[in-house]
Design a protein that fits this description.
Low-confidence stretches: none
Number of strands: 20
Strand order of the largest sheet: 7-8-6-9-10-11-12-13-14
Number of helices: 17
CATH class of the largest domain: Alpha Beta
CATH superfamily of the largest domain: Mur-like, catalytic domain
Oligomer: single chain
CATH architecture of the largest domain: 3-Layer(aba) Sandwich
Largest sheet: 9 strands, mixed
Structural class: alpha/beta
């Protein structure tokens, strides 16, 4: 009898896992407590995969030998608890897919910068002519690519939620950008639980693997001695013994494994946060043996990531920037830190246990107005009302952009960098960013 695999959640990762499991000859059942999109229903039907939506039928789930859980479903969900209590192993789609490919895995995590860094590494590998896939939080699911068009390399963005259910998976190159408070609502509001999840990227690394990390992160420095890992490739802005990338006299210096440098002003991405993203990407490509000329050219020509400090328009002397992907406070800190003009800041959404004190000084220094875009803005008012900066509450993107136009003066910037998840008013951070861009475009 074939092994029965049940998949909880029928989004990109769930459907990909179902297709791979089906191809491998397993008995597959997909269950989603919410609605399944028509796109994924069609895919499942085409492959003859049984599914259900808007319910979890216990009898069809608890007879599984293994359950693949979508990362968005919390471990506290009733059906997940029942599966766990029944002693059925629960894994992630990435863990499952990793069993069935011999590809090298370049994996990126961190509280901030991981999407840009992942996209940049993928771009460099593509420019080098390598057979490479983009997976994890972005791109098609890893399982789908392994099933339909396996690659030699995968560049995989990993959230803490994905790492939670990964056990045997091995990152040949592990990149850890930084660790700041995020998603604490999913980690019992305990920072150490979140930190432990991030460091799971190092589990199973061998001595000849690589660990690329930001050397100036105090949490990473504190945790490093507790974990086995591959060869260390630390980077930081200022030169220090042991760094494999740093800046000196307006140049970025890469020291290992192949030494090279490039002018800092030649980087296509600007701002300190993007300096770190470029260093991490450059090291990862260097470790993979990509020619320094290719790395240098790719770092010059990369065009950036949608919804991450994305310039939308200049209207009546006011610049509009879409940073909808800033779903935590530290991401907003990087965005504000890179602002050269006085700013109208749009904040709000589903709070994940945020501490806004991290951006307090930058808000006082750079912001001429605050727009709170959320169902419940009480926490934002409690923190920011004493700053003496004009604030306004809105419940839709149309009203938000309208108020931004009223508040912003010529020579200022309107920055959507919400610090929060989008799920109170929007389907996703992409939906929030698209709506922002569409509303801004109405005034062009």
């Amino acid at each position: 009898m074939n092994k029965r695999i049940v998949i909880l959640g029928a989004g990109e990762s769930g459907c990909g896992a179902a297709i791979l499991a089906n191809k491998l000859g397993f008995e597959v059942f997909v269950s989603d407590f919410g609605s399944i999109s028509d796109k994924y229903k069609k895919v499942l039907d085409e492959h003859g995969i049984e599914w259900e939506e808007k319910q979890h039928t216990e009898a069809l789930i608890l007879n599984a030998q293994e359950v693949i859980k979508s990362p968005g479903i919390p471990c506290e969900a009733p059906m997940v608890k029942r599966v766990s209590d029944a002693g059925i192993p629960i894994i992630s789609e990435i863990e499952f897919a990793g069993r069935y490919t011999k590809a090298k895995m370049i994996c990126i995590t961190g509280s901030n910068g991981k999407t840009t860094t992942t996209s940049l590494i993928y771009y460099i590998f593509k420019e080098a002519g390598l057979n490479v896939g983009l997976a994890g939080n972005i791109g098609n699911s890893l399982a789908l690519q392994v099933a339909e068009d396996d690659k030699d390399y995968y560049i995989v963005e990993l959230s803490s939620f994905q790492l939670d259910n990964m056990y045997e998976f091995r990152a040949n190159v592990a990149v850890l950008m930084n660790i700041t408070p995020d998603h604490l609502d999913r980690y019992e509001h305990k920072m150490q639980n979140y930190v432990d999840a991030k460091f799971r990227i190092l589990q199973n690394q061998q001595p000849d693997d690589a660990f690329v990390f930001w050397n100036d992160d105090p949490i990473i420095q504190n945790e490093l001695p507790k974990h086995k890992h591959g060869k260390l490739y630390p980077f930081a802005e200022n030169k220090k013994e042991g760094l494999v990338a740093y800046t000196e006299e307006h140049k970025i210096i890469f020291t290992e494994p192949t030494p090279f440098n490039m002018e800092q002003e030649e980087l296509s991405l600007t701002g300190k946060h993007n300096l770190y993203n470029s260093m991490a990407a450059g090291i990862s490509a260097n470790v993979a043996g990509i020619r320094k000329e290719t790395i240098r050219e790719a770092l010059k020509s990369f065009t950036g990531v949608e919804h991450r400090l994305e310039r939308v328009a200049m209207i009546d002397g006011v610049e509009y920037i879409n940073d909808s992907k800033a779903t935590n406070v530290n991401s907003c800190w990087y965005a504000l830190q890179s602002m050269k003009r006085k700013t109208i800041l749009i904040l709000g959404g589903k709070d994940k246990g945020n501490d806004y004190s991290e951006i307090a000084d930058l808000v006082r220094e750079k912001c001429n107005g605050l727009i709170f875009l959320g169902v419940d803005n009480s926490k934002l008012h409690t923190f920011f009302d004493s700053f003496g900066i004009p604030t306004v509450d809105v419940r839709s993107m149309q009203d938000c952009v309208c108020e931004a136009r009223n508040m912003a003066k010529r020579g200022e910037t309107v920055l959507l960098s919400p610090c929060c998840a989008s799920f109170d008013l929007f389907k996703s951070y992409e939906d929030r960013g698209e709506q922002f861009k569409n509303e801004v475009a109405k005034y062009l």
